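Sample intake sheet
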Amino acid sequence: MKTIAILGGGSWGTALALLLARNHPQLPFSLWVHDPELARTMRERRDNEVYLPGFALPETIRVTSDMAEAVTGATLLVGVMPSAHARSIYAAALRSLNEMPAFISATKGLETGTLHRMSQVIEEVAAARFYRPASVAVLSGPSFALEVARGDPVAVVAASRDRSLAQQAQEIFSGPSFRVYTSEDVVGVELGGAVKNIIAIAAGICTGVGLGHSTIASLITRGAAEMTRLACSLGAEPRTLAGLSGVGDLVLTATGPLSRNRAVGIELGRGRTLVDILQSMRMVAEGIGTTAAAVELAHRVGVEIPITEQMHTVLYQGRSPRDAIRELMQRKLKEE
């Protein structure tokens, strides 16, 4: 068993910490939390009252806001931070280490500007620090933090080009209520996890404007096709996008009441502005930033992603949701 540090004390990071504590009750590990005050209250009250209240944190989870304390001696870093902060957080973590750790990324998003997947961000940061390639796995699939924390049966996938690391991730996280499959298709798993958030915002918009289940089903299906086209143009396997980290995660995020991205879409559909919505949110909806990155990435590789492009006009150009829906429905007719 590796010495583990989880980087990110939001709802998903806390849920994975609870999962590890259940699976390995004798294994102490660190949970790094960005906010010192939140870290203090979590240590004292053994509860993440801000992001995932109601779940007692076992004493084996060492909560800290001190990065050096969190990662010293760690041989495995589990990244559960927002994608916008991933590069800086990994860089800070590696400055406190003298040897290269292995990495498991559980962040679902693309980096704005570089358009990098999270595994690519890790590889760049690690190479700059240790001058050699990093061993990276990604963990993704249909999984709400609240449901994982309470022990609902959930299945996800761990992907890595290093098969032994994917198997280690499988062994570390699998338990009575959490089943992990392995894959070598890192590109497909990461892009599925990132792009489905965009489609989930669109699904929320449809709900917000009062459209029904037929619309949502059509959107999810065409969204899956769009997601698959983009991922496969970048080297992914089609079957990956039909699996847990593709269609599985898409269905959950586009329909589940716990989905932050869907919630953003619902409020947009009801007429609220994005600025107003974001000001009222405590947690990050990754689909917002990923939309801009995905559009640029698709243009770079020459792939058509009409739903994502319309979402970009809604989020960044102020287009009305109903106009975006009308534009999608009036596109040139074609074969499926």
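Comment: The domain at 187-329 is CATH 1.10.1040.10 (N-(1-d-carboxylethyl)-l-norvaline Dehydrogenase; domain 2). The mean pLDDT is 97.
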